[in-house]
Amino acid sequence: TLLSPKYKSKFNRLAKIHRSLTTSYERNLWIALPNLQRLQKRLGIPDAVAEDALRIYTQTVKKKLTMGRSIDTLLSASIFAALRVHGIPRTAEEITKIAQIPKKKVIKSYRLILMEVLPKLGMKVQHFSADRYVDKFNEELKLSMQSRNIAVKLIEKARDSGFNSAGKDPKGIAAASIYIASKICSENRTQKEISQLAKVTEVTLRMRVKDLQKYANIVD
């Protein structure tokens, strides 16, 4: 079907603008910006984070790091990096699910950004301890503040008793503490429910539960 005069005029204007973007850098940003806005809206991230994600993404394009990487992969990695710069504990899985990009590709691009881009921009990511994830998961599971406080104290007690969390996913530790705390407070949540939310396996959750029970001296 033929375009109506109104839409034909609009299409021609857009085509003219697109032709005027002579460099691949400009064309890339022309495509990337609306995609970033779409991801920002769907992820519900603050404007300040989106602005830094754009700064990060723009730098990856300037440094010609786009070879073999899709726009949405780099955008997702840039958003993940910006969230960590701002200290907002969103998981890579949350981003990749909405962006519909394989997690492996986004993490690979994120590591590249970590080494090649953030130092250039004077940005540093914050590394999240399990405590930070406790607040996030507790809120999403609609558990009480009492349950949250017990979960945090469990982690603190385990650390004080010699529990070494190095090399262990903080999400798994947070999930385990919440599972135990929810049982103590009679706000029971299943292992399946918590592991799915935390994006860890039920096997990992059970292992971390055993760790916390051992070091925090809790009898099941």
Provide structural commentary.
- The chain folds into 2 domains: 5-121, Cyclin-like (Cyclin A, domain 1), CATH 1.10.472.10; 130-215, Cyclin-like (Cyclin A, domain 1, Orthogonal Bundle).
- It contains 12 helices and no strands.
- Helix content is 71%, strand content 0%.
- It has helices at 5-20, 24-43, 47-62, 71-85, 92-99, 103-116, 118-121, 130-140, 145-160, 170-184, 191-198, 202-215.
- Helix 10 runs antiparallel to helix 11 (191-198).
- It is mostly helical and 220 residues long.
- The mean pLDDT is 88.
- The longest helix is centred in the N-terminal third of the chain and has 20 residues, at 24-43.
User: Could you list the spans in which at least 5 consecutive residues all have pLDDT below 50?
Assistant: none
- Total helical elements: 12
* The CATH architecture of the largest domain: Orthogonal Bundle
Within CATH, the superfamily of the largest domain carries the name Cyclin-like
Reported for the largest beta sheet, the result is: none
In total, the number of domains comes to 2
Query: Approximately how much beta-strand content do the residues carry?
Result: under 5%
* Rg over alpha carbons: 22 Å
Number of strands: 0
The succession of helices and strands, N to C, reads: HHHHHHHHHHHH
State the end-to-end distance: 69 Å
**From the helix content, strand content and strand pairing, which structural class follows?**
mainly alpha
How would the global form be characterised?
A: elongated
CATH topology category name of the largest domain: Cyclin A, domain 1
In the CATH scheme, the class of the largest domain would be Mainly Alpha
**Helicity range:** over 70%
What is the typical, i.e. mean, pLDDT? 88
